[in-house]
Amino acid sequence: MTRRYDYIHDGAAIYARSFAIIRSESDLSRFSVEEARIAVRMIHGSGMVEIAEAIHFGGDFARAGRAALLAGAPILCDSKMVANGITRPRLPAKNEIICLLDAPEVPGIAARICNTRSAAALDLWGDRLAGAVVAIGNAPTALFHLLELIDAGAPMPAAVIGLPVGFVGAAESKAALAADGRLPFVIVEGRRGGSAMAVSAVNALASEAE
User: Could you give phi then psi for residue 76, rounded to 5 degrees?
Assistant: First the structure.
């Protein structure tokens, strides 16, 4: 086929060029090597180099999250967009990816706890929280409820990707996670976040290959 436009059409070359641009245009100097690799993926997933200054890591997140995945920990997701976006071949131990948003019990739990379905689905994670990697890329209520569950004695996950997005509760829930101090985390301050960035963080933890 004759190409009408001059563009890069090799997938590996597109990734390589994208990451080179991100590293040339972003200030990643305050991050460790491992954190910078995660930040680059998150910037790639959002298309915004300026979010580098709003990305914050806590509690040795990069090491803890990577070690958990290598040990076979499940990945617990608040939305199907996050669950479906994770690149399965990158996972180091065929890690289980769990999103229980569509479980039949969820509407009843949501009514009982007076919260959203996204938050109610976390009540079904149960013991699977122990040592898991949690990826929240949609609902602030899910991130708030995760902290409430841990207050109530739920098992501790190994690492939390706290990237809910939006205008109501997103900034506040991420600030609450950062201030909590009990969990290794990555957040983007403010309203920005979303499933694409959460997926990017999981994919960066899953493999050291950029």
Answer: -100, 120
